[in-house]
Amino acid sequence: MVDKLFDTFNGHSYQNSEKMYKRALRQNSPHFKLWDDLLPVLKSMRFKVEKKLQDGTISTKFEQVPSLRNWISNINVYKEMFKYLKETHNVSSLLTRNINQDPLENFFCNIRSNGVRNTSSTSLVHLKLCL
């Protein structure tokens, strides 16, 4: 099921594809059903953390790690974002692959380099130059 979750955030085709979750996000796409099914599972997951105390006893906690909280947040953001884009701008489909970390990294890399390799400057300086 986790591989399907990754596929939902890596949709790159408007056409039918071998993997149904690698298609564009649309109003009635199966992405929403999978996300609704996975949200309770992700919210319930905890990891056992044991810590040895000074008195020799072991303290045990069950914590939700940041990566799980971020997956939950991403799912909720995509659901709300698609709803907003559909209602406000009449967007009928969205390629989820285009809204992931790689394009953002490339964008900020271009801002930082500002056309030439400049390793000593800050991103804020380049951001001001681009505005």
Plain-language structure description:
- The protein has 131 residues and is of the alpha+beta class.
- The protein folds into two domains: 2-99; 101-131, no CATH class.
- It contains five helices and four strands; from the N terminus they run αβαββαβαα.
- Strands 1-4 form a two-stranded antiparallel ribbon. The protein has a two-stranded antiparallel sheet with strand order 2-3.
- Strand 2 (47-52) and strand 3 form a beta hairpin.
- Helix 2 (30-44) packs antiparallel against helix 3 and helix 4 (101-113) packs across helix 5.
- The termini are far apart.
- Mean pLDDT is 83; it is low at 126-131.
Oligomeric assembly: single chain
Strand order of the largest sheet: 1-4
Number of domains: 2
Beta-sheet strand percentage? 5-15%
Helix and strand composition category: alpha+beta
What's the helical proportion of residues?
40-55%
SS elements, strand count: 4
**Rg over CA atoms:** 20 Å
Instruction: Give the N-terminus to C-terminus distance in angstroms.
Output: 43 Å
